[in-house]
Amino acid sequence: MKNYHKIITEIYSDLKNVNDIGKVANYIPELANVSDSNFGVHITTIDRNSFGIGDSDKKFSIQSISKILTLTLAYQLEGEKLWKRVDVEPSGNPFNSLLQLEADLGIPRNPFINAGAIVVCDILISHLQHPKEDFLAFCKEISNNPHLKYDEKVAQSEKSSGYRNIALCNFIKSFGNIKNDIDIVLDFYFYTCALEMTCKEVSEIFLFLADDHFITQKGKRVLTMSQAKRINAILLTCGFYDESGEFAFRVGLPGKSGVGGGIIAIHPDEFCITVWSPKLNKKGNSYKGMLFLEQFTTATESSIF
Length: 305
Ligand code: GLU
Description:
Blueprint: H1 4-16, E1 23-24, E2 40-45, E3 50-54, E4 60-61, H2 66-78, H3 99-103, H4 114-127, H5 131-143, E5 149-150, H6 152-159, H7 163-174, H8 182-193, E6 195-197, H9 199-205, H10 207-210, H11 225-238, H12 244-250, E7 255-257, E8 262-267, E9 271-276, E10 279-280, H13 287-300
Antiparallel strand pairs: 1-10, 2-3, 2-9, 4-6, 5-6, 7-8, 8-9
């Protein structure tokens, strides 16, 4: 592996005690119970070289990072028809905004904001017999990892406090872009957000977006090369709420953040890297995570630009 090991170790120790001005998300009560001092990093290259540091083997709530996984399965099942239900434009609005939906007649701007992921969940429900079980089985298959599971406490906590997502789902349904029962759609959405993984597991599950030749243990491709390219493109332009431009500007990789403080960044043909640090900046992205990745791509000269 390049000199990633050394560089990650150096940046990690520089940032470990940096003054972190972020705040742990507490609008989902269960997320506020996580210690804000957690800090882990893990990189997996497409040659399956792997290196982790800090809390890289502790499970955390991946939250919106799961939106890549729901989108991937929906793209597999639905093909290009998917883009009639959800657009591929940056929103320039917070992840849980209702504003734009009115003007856009219930077609969410992209699959990585809550509105878009809720529509993607609705599409999956129309295809899957047992959505929660089938989605988890899909995640286990593409990561070759039988240990993945939902964090029940996080799912229930979000369910009991998810007023905005409930509003979003109802609002989209009023435009006819939710086909199934809203309670079923929301329950599935909350569970997908409650997937828990370690930094190592996250860096492994997304290898199919970095490695053009990726096949599962069963010998199957996850997406075509063209589909993987498209998902990376949406990640670059829409993966960080209304800070996607800033992430591309400072880090220069496709990626996705979640309000649990995790970030996955993908370098096509090279690696997947995950950083987890729960304190979020004002836009909802991990403060230290962004700082780490900015320094990492600068030191390794590994942005895609
Ligand atoms: N479950 C979170 C929500 O729906 C996901 C938000 C995020 O990580 O961006 O509010």
